[in-house]
Design goal:
This protein is mainly beta and 229 residues long. It has two domains: 77 residues, no CATH class; 136 residues, no CATH class. The chain is built from one helix and 22 strands. β18 and β19 form a beta hairpin. The protein is elongated and about 100 Å long.
């Protein structure tokens, strides 16, 4: 293949991947807690025909040189963890993280995943679970069947009002997990991420403390995709 055609092909291939990334962003513009990605481009090796600074004669040197590029490629897709907008739902088990951090989710195989999606519900045993797949939130929180109301404070304390009781009873504590490099998390679908060597170890703790976000009950975080960009 002629070198010029090959260079053009690398540009087309890279642009196709870029369009795929953009298409996925747009497809998830209404997905709660979704974080947009961008394609990272890098130029390929150069053929140095004349080195910059090389001698063009005994008394002069080349100011620029002659270097022919070999094209481009997509070397990474980078997640943007900027905050999405807040929408009010008034759902007692809808919880938004305002600031940094993720909810911990227990997977069926015993591993842990992480999510910004705070749409929770309860299963048949009263466990707080994700509203989609029904995965348990960690630490596990059980909502009594006869709970008349549920309150989740900004620092994650979960309390309920039970029949015949004046004071609310604390039933659990929501935590928030931070990472040194959240861009290093691996997206696995279902609004979930898994930790990798690039993300660093998960650091779980009480919301508000040590740079973690606060929790807002009755609200959710929208996708951070801007369809007008």
């Amino acid at each position: 293949m002629h070198p010029a055609l090959w260079i053009s092909k690398t540009g087309l291939d890279a642009k196709q991947r870029d369009i795929s990334v953009i298409s996925n962003n747009l497809a998830n513009a209404s997905t709660i807690g979704f974080k947009k990605s961008r394609a990272v481009f890098e130029d390929l090796l150069y053929q140095n025909i004349n080195q910059p600074g090389g001698r063009s004669s005994q008394n002069s040197e080349l100011p620029n040189g002659l270097m022919l590029g070999a094209g481009t490629k997509v070397v990474a897709t980078q997640k943007s963890f900027t905050q999405g907008n807040m929408i009010t739902t008034e759902g007692s088990l809808d919880v938004m993280i305002q600031g940094h951090g993720f909810f911990e989710v227990l997977m069926p195989d015993g591993t842990t995943s992480y999510s910004r999606n705070g749409q929770f519900t309860t299963d048949s045993e009263g466990n707080m679970v994700t509203s989609g797949a029904g995965y348990q939130i960690q630490p596990n929180i059980v909502i009594p069947e006869d709970a008349q109301s549920i309150t989740i404070s900004q620092d994650g304390e979960v309390s309920v009002r039970l029949p015949g009781q004046v004071d609310q009873a604390v039933v659990g504590q929501l935590t928030v997990t931070n990472f040194v490099n959240p861009a290093g998390l691996e997206p696995v679908g279902q609004n979930l991420f898994t930790a990798t060597a690039a993300s660093g170890d998960p650091v779980q703790g009480i919301p508000v403390l040590e740079g973690r976000g606060i929790l807002v009950q009755g609200a959710l975080e929208t996708s951070n995709v801007n369809v007008t960009e």
